[in-house]
Amino acid sequence: MKIIELIIDExxxxxxxxxxxxxxNPAIEENWIALKNQEVKFAEVDKEKRVILGAALIxxxxxxxxxxxxxxxxxxxxxxxxxxxxEIFFVNGNQSNATLEHKYKLExxxxxxxxxxxxxxxxxxxxxxxxxxxxxxxxxxxVNSDEIWDEYIRTKKVLGFSIEGxxxxxxxxxxxxxxxxxxxxxxxxxxxxxIIKDEA
Length: 200
Hints:
Elements: E1 2-7, E2 16-23, E3 33-35, E4 51-57, E5 63-66, E6 72-76, H1 79-91, E7 98-100, E8 104-106, E9 109-116, H2 124-127, E10 137-143, H3 146-153, E11 160-166, E12 168-171, H4 177-199
Parallel strand pairs: 1-6, 2-7
Antiparallel strand pairs: 1-12, 2-11, 3-4, 4-10, 5-6, 7-8, 9-10
């Protein structure tokens, strides 16, 4: 199966992350952690923080894609691209751009924290039980909308983040052996699931 590395070409002005979407099935396969009753110093000011925390982009994680014409392939982002994406998102002032399932623009959501995991054992994400690789782009998002919090987050209709953006691509087999092994495992799993679906 074809593997496409998505990159940010700094000479291409269209390459950017324009929004973060709340989705029911995150492509990166990592759900967020909802931080609603965490103790804070100013608890009297805000008894329910309404902050969700999760991975926006994970480096070298193969993501399965299928076109409307039926072509199947994997995409992935290397660590350098993940870092560039996180920076461009803020440089362009997009921290309050949010959508629902990549379809509907949402108001009242803002990314209030953003960081790259440098040491997975000492990172804030591990405190919340997340086991993510170094180089992962993490975000915390403040939800100021009662409707979105009550209808989508509290009910778990949406479970994670998915980025929206434009990237350049280059089709080549990655040199990272661990990524190759994960891609082979994903490829095998995709074929097995297709056989099961066809037989059902």
